[in-house]
C-alpha cells in the first residue's frame, strides 16, 4: 500500500535497510524504522497541535511499543503516550515514558488497577459505572483522585468488531449520577473510537458519527455541572486532520500511524509526514511462478500490493495472506522466474507490529546520510541487541 510512497519520499530508508541486510546486521522478518523521519513527523504533528490548541497523546502499538522510538517522539514535542492495554503501559512506564491515557481501547482489569494508578496516568477511560467504582476503590486506598473519561456510544456509531462497549448515550445521565457519588474519581471528559476515518470517496479524513455522539455527551455533562476538559477524538490524527479535530470541537488527538506516515491518507506520499517504516525479508523457496518469502510480520489488514527487489530494482505483485492462515511465508508472483532463493525483498504496508512475530530494527541518521543501527527489538518492545 505504501511502497510507491516510500520509493518516492524516502528511498534512503530502503537503501539503508538493504545495506544492513546485506551486511548481516539484520535478518528476515524485520521491520526497519527510520528514527530521523519519526522525529521529523512527530515535530510536525506537535507543531500543528500546538497551533490549533489540540493536546496530543502518541500511540506506540503500531511500531511495537518501542522505547527508543517513543523517547524520540517525546523529545520531538509529544510528551505523553496512550497505552491501549496494560502490557503496553508497563513497557512505556519501565522506560520512563509518561502515560497520558489508559483504559482505551482496553479496560484495566481489576487486579491491575493499583499498578495502573502507580503510573499516574493523566486520564483513564471507563466503559461503565462499575469500572469507575473499581478505580475509585483503589484510588481511595492510595489517597488520590483519578481523572477519568467516559466512553460514550449511541445507535449508529461506527465500532470495529471486537471493540464494542461503552456507556449508552441514553443512559449517560444515570451513569454520571452514579459515578458522581464516588469521592476518588473525577469525570473530566468523553471519548470514542474511531472518531475520524479516511474516506476513499473524498480522499480526505472525515468525522464519523461517533464524533457527534461524544459532542452531545459533552453537552450533557456540562448541563450536569461537570467541567469538560477533554473531548478526545482518536484515529487518523495527523497534520492534515488536526484542523478538522479543532473544527469539530475536539480537544485531544492521538497520533499513531501518522508518526510512521502510514495512515491511508499518506499512501500517495504527498502528506507532510514521510514514510518511516518498511518490512524486509528474503526468498525462502520457489514453486512454479511463485516465490515464497519468510513471514511472521504480515498483517491481515495491510492491503499490501507489491514487494520491491533492491537487486533487480523492480517491484512484484504479491498475494495477501488470508486472515485464517498463519503467515509462515509471504507469496510473490514471479512469472518470469527473476527472483532467486536468498534474494532480499522489501515491503511497505499498514501494520500493527505488536500483533506480529516480527523484529524491529531502529535505524538513525538516515536523513543525515549516515545510517546506523541503534538496536533490534521484539514486536513488544523488548531489546534483543
From TrEMBL:
CDD domains, A to Z: PLPDE_III_yhfX_like
Positions of the Alanine racemase N-terminal domain: 33-264
InterPro entries: Ala_racemase_N, PLP-binding_barrel, YhfX-like_C
Pfam families: Ala_racemase_N, YhfX-like_C
Residue span(s) of domain YhfX-like C-terminal: 278-373
Origin superkingdom: Bacteria
Transmembrane segments: none
The protein's name in its UniProt record: YhfX family PLP-dependent enzyme
Species of provenance: Calorimonas adulescens
